[in-house]
Design a protein that fits this description.
Organism: Sinomicrobium oceani
Largest sheet: 10 strands, mixed
Shape: globular
Number of strands: 51
CATH architecture of the largest domain: Alpha/alpha barrel
Catalytic activity: Hydrolysis of terminal non-reducing alpha-L-rhamnose residues in alpha-L-rhamnosides
InterPro entries: 6-hairpin_glycosidase_sf, 6hp_glycosidase-like_sf, Alpha_rhamnosid, Bac_rhamnosid6H, Bac_rhamnosid_C, Bac_rhamnosid_N, Ig-like_fold, Rhamnosid_concanavalin
GO biological process, one term: carbohydrate metabolic process
Distance between the termini: 43 Å
Enzyme class: hydrolase
């Protein structure tokens, strides 16, 4: 029997290319179409991992075996000539999600086509259509003759200061092709950012490329298939270099804190294969021409971009342009970091939105409202006279008088300026900056601007939206929407803390648990796999990990809770995506950090170094930024010790996954015992049955990490409940650290109703309070509208904690079994009694879509479930008797399904498929 439900996926470290099939009435797979998350070009992983999905359609489908063929040409693959690798039939029951390529060694620029067939209990599939990838430049020596070019100086119209102004650099070169081109690829490193053109055509749809790194440690190159862009005869290559993170926005300013790298530069190879089998490589050298006297007069991530259309150079990136007045590019020093293929898709314009209003403010000034705090830029359409200047200033909110409020942006000037050339309608948006904003002040616009003159272009890393959530509570739904907008806005080749002020840094602590929640909403595996590399590269030789990575700010403060993100993100990638390789690659560096911390700060079983405490605890007064009341603050050593025990537990898990030496496991377990005992002795009040000063966080962390003796857990939890219900009147009192474990722990101990109350309240403090006060993203401060506003970012995600995890795992019941990572087994145990009447959630896992839609009314429950192929599930039903359960209209005991009664719940085992379940309780 032929299975016609196969989907092909190619997976590499930090890159997944997904292909999906269209189903045909026949018995073979037809119409396979690639639905790439990123082009699989320039892969520099010598052992890529391959994977695929079974398309939903055959209930209970789970693969039992597979066969993979990999060939060096499409023609060979079509003839079943697997000259690179033929796995043969390999027994596998879907437990190994990623299959490591095991064929002939792959060479630089090697091309590979592959296909797969699988066997399930229903039989054998046909071959999938072909997938494809190509290798990048694997050896540094192959770049050696490619020189970095640029100009290591400012031009007369530039300025180098705390508020630097540096114009974009334009480079060009003409080449002659005398043969017919079979294939051509461009390998480019353009720092800080670049746009590439061939014969006037922009190559690729990426923006703000490449993704940022610490350029002294590693530099990302991008690869493009440019075959179609080349033409017989003369061709023009052109690039524009923006400043990005390479030419740091604040030059000669706090050099002890802010890392600087140098002036923009580039290195590129154009690899051309001719139809006669010969090759030619065009490289960057001193024959390239350069000017900085183009239309982009300055570009600065904090301050904005200025574009003078009168300075445009028509045809500069086409053959025949007169560049005799341009300078010759200079050879310049290379950045210092190792060259690596960019294994993430990079950023794109992912959505466009229209403004909702434009209001005149007098004297040619208008305020534009986008209706949503967004991240990206504004595209304008304008007609006017030569020299007219349209100035755009951005902000997240307005003053009471209706003007832009910009104090919270600190010294970021966030201003774009467009000077018209005066030739009919002109359309423009910036190239090398982005803004976080809802409102735009428009001045100098010729005539009266209308809504149709503006479009907001939303920019973030290209990735799939994997999750949806809706409930019967409109506040919960609004919080989810705010989280969605906030999360994606802060994906900028790395996760940053905020997108608007003079910070925009990849703080580790913001994502310790947040990355896990985000993974339900976005396919963020490649972004976070890349970020783990950034963290590793930022580690000091003796083992220290900074609070910001890449370390654009030199914040090596030595604490536990911020570096802990290195561990928790690796665990997230394993749990969500079954990616064990990230754990294997980073385990030695995690171990190095732990030895460093223990050697320097472990004293008598306690981790004595903490830096931030439970950051951003709701203060006692709406006017305060940080709490002053000692009763609200949690001891830093308590936090550091408890969190370190949590990391020891993760390292014990990691050691088992990768097969680390037994002595590693013994060390972790001994440390857990030692530190737990010391913690209990130091902080537990045996008379009152709580920890230290009885804050929610002080009691919550040991409870969440299993450090509380079993006979004391109920009493400790009672103190948490009493503090929330009585002391705080049903409001949250935790900061960044406690909130990471709050909602799940309340639910695990039977108080999902209290978690729901915390989430849905619209009075201070809480996420609902933000919604009730007009927020369209997540604030940095619980009281961001009343504390000193200049200290509040209105687009932060660090306070989400475990809220989104709770949405999906505890409200919708979409949770992977820890022993079956990547949703091989799904535990569906929603909190039906939390107070909601309805929850509808979807999640596209690595194995396929998971759906959980439930509603309850008058003691009746209806639950629609979808389990993806290659997975099964255990569902928990609030029915005292199986006689009350109907599955697809049939009584449970007649379906042949395996089930058991446990307390007041019925646990049913489901294979993959779609089910309608009804019960009374």
């Amino acid at each position: 029997m032929l299975i016609r439900t196969l989907c092909l996926v190619v997976y590499f470290i930090g890159l997944t290319a997904i292909c999906a099939t269209t189903e045909d009435p026949g018995t073979e797979i037809t119409g396979l179409r690639c639905e790439m998350l990123t082009d699989p070009l320039g892969i520099d992983v010598v052992h890529p991992r391959l994977s695929w999905r079974l398309k939903p359609g055959v209930p209970g489908a789970r693969r039992m075996a597979y066969r993979i063929m990999v060939a060096s040409t499409r023609e060979k693959l079509d003839r079943d000539e697997a000259d690179l690798w033929d796995s043969g039939r390999t027994e596998d029951r879907g437990t190994s999600w990623y299959i490591t390529y095991g064929g002939s060694p792959l060479q630089s620029k090697q091309q590979a086509w592959w296909k797969v067939k699988v066997w399930t209990a229903e039989g054998e599939s046909s071959w999938s259509d072909a997938g494809y990838w190509s290798m990048g430049i694997l050896n540094y020596a192959e770049w050696k003759s490619t020189r970095w070019i640029g100009m290591d100086k400012a031009f007369p119209w530039d300025s180098i200061s705390q508020f630097s102004r540096l114009s974009a650099r334009y480079l060009r070169k003409e080449i002659a092709l005398k043969k017919k081109v079979k294939q051509a690829r461009a390998y480019i490193m353009g720092l800080g950012m670049y746009e590439l053109y061939i014969n006037g055509k922009r190559i690729g749809d990426q923006v703000l490329a490449p993704v940022p790194t610490d350029y002294t440690k590693n530099v990302k190159y991008n690869v493009y298939d440019v075959t179609a862009a080349l033409q017989p005869g003369t061709n023009a290559l052109g690039t524009i270099l923006g400043n990005g993170r390479y030419f740091t926005m604040r030059q000669d300013y706090k050099p002890y804190k802010i890392k600087t790298f140098g002036f923009p530069k580039m290195a590129m190879q154009l690899d051309i294969e001719y139809t006669d089998g010969t090759h030619e490589i065009i490289k960057t050298d001193e024959s390239w021409k350069l000017t900085a006297d183009g239309p982009v007069r300055t570009n600065n991530e904090y301050d904005g971009e200025e574009y003078d259309a009168r300075k445009e150079m028509p045809g500069w990136n086409r053959p025949g342009y007169d560049d005799s007045h341009w300078l010759h590019a200079s050879y310049v020093q290379e950045p210092g970091g190792f060259y690596e293929a960019q294994m993430t898709p990079g950023m794109r314009v992912m959505e466009e939105i229209s403004p909702v209003s434009v209001k005149a403010r007098g004297k040619g000034k208008y305020i534009l409202d986008m209706g949503q705090n967004m991240v990206g830029w504004l595209q304008i359409r304008v007609s006017g006279n030569t020299g007219d200047r349209v100035t755009l200033r951005f902000s997240e909110s307005l003053t009471e008088e209706g003007e832009l409020y910009t104090e919270n942006l600190r010294d970021a000037r966030v201003t774009d300026v467009y000077t018209l050339k005066g030739n009919g309608e002109e359309t423009w948006h910036p190239t090398f900056v982005y803004h976080g904003f809802r409102y735009v002040e428009v001045t100098g616009f010729p005539g009266k601007p209308a809504l149709e003159n503006f479009r907001g272009q939303v920019v973030y890393d290209k990735m799939e939206t994997t999750g949806t959530f809706e409930s019967s509570d409109t506040t919960l739904n609004s919080i989810f929407k705010n989280a969605y907008w906030g999360i994606r806005g802060n994906y900028k080749g790395m996760p940053v803390d905020c997108p608007q002020r003079n910070e925009r840094q990849p703080w580790l602590g913001d994502r310790a648990t947040g990355a896990y929640g985000e993974s339900f909403v976005f396919g963020n595996a490649t972004l976070y796999a890349k970020w783990l590399d950034d963290i590793r590269n930022a580690q000091t030789p003796d083992g220290g990990i900074p609070d910001v990575a890449p370390a654009f700010w030199r914040y090596y403060g030595d604490n536990v809770t911020w570096p802990a993100t290195y561990f928790t993100v690796a665990d997230m990638l394993y749990s969500r995506y079954a990616d064990y390789r990230s754990i294997k690659e980073h385990y030695p560096f995690m171990k190095k950090w732990m030895r460093y911390m223990e050697a320097n700060y472990l004293r008598e079983g306690l981790m004595t170094k903490d830096k931030y405490g439970d950051w951003c605890v709701p203060p006692e007064s709406l006017e305060l930024i940080h709490a002053r009341d000692p009763a609200r603050k949690t001891n830093g050593t308590l936090i550091a010790t408890a969190y370190y025990v949590h990391l020891l537990q993760l390292m014990t898990k990691f050691a088992g996954i990768i097969g680390a030496p037994d002595e590693d496991v013994r060390h972790y377990r001994d440390r857990i015992t030692e530190m737990t005992e010391a913690f209990q002795q130091r902080y537990f009040n045996t008379d009152r049955q709580y920890y230290d000063n009885n804050t929610v966080t002080a009691n919550l962390l040991p409870l969440a990490f299993g450090m509380v003796p079993d006979n004391r857990s109920a009493q400790v939890f009672d103190h948490i409940v009493r503090t929330i219900e009585q002391t705080n009147n049903g409001h949250i009192s935790t900061g960044v650290i406690g909130t990471q474990f709050l909602m799940r722990t309340l639910t695990a101990y039977g108080r999902a109703d209290l978690a729901y109350r915390l989430a849905s309240t619209t009075t201070y403090p809480g996420w609902g309070y933000m919604v009730a006060n007009g927020a369209t993203t997540i604030w940095e401060l619980w009281n961001g509208n009343t504390a000193d506003p200049k200290m509040n970012s209105q687009n932060h995600v660090m306070l989400l904690g475990d809220l989104l995890i709770w949405y999906y795992e505890d409200l919708a019941g979409i949770k992977t079994d820890p022993s079956h990572p990547g949703f091989g087994k799904i535990i569906m145990n929603p909190s039906f009694g939390c107070g909601l009447d309805k929850v509808s959630a979807t999640y596209r896992s690595v194995r396929g879509p998971v759906v959980s839609n439930w509603s309850r009314k008058r003691g009746k429950l209806q639950w629609d479930i979808t389990i993806p192929p290659d997975a099964d599930a255990e569902i928990y039903l609030p029915a005292g008797s199986p006689d009350k359960v109907r599955v697809d209209g049939k009584k449970l005991h007649t379906t042949g399904m395996v089930y058991e009664s446990k307390g007041e719940k019925i646990i049913v085992k489901l294979a993959s498929g779609t089910y309608n379940i009804r019960t009374t309780y």
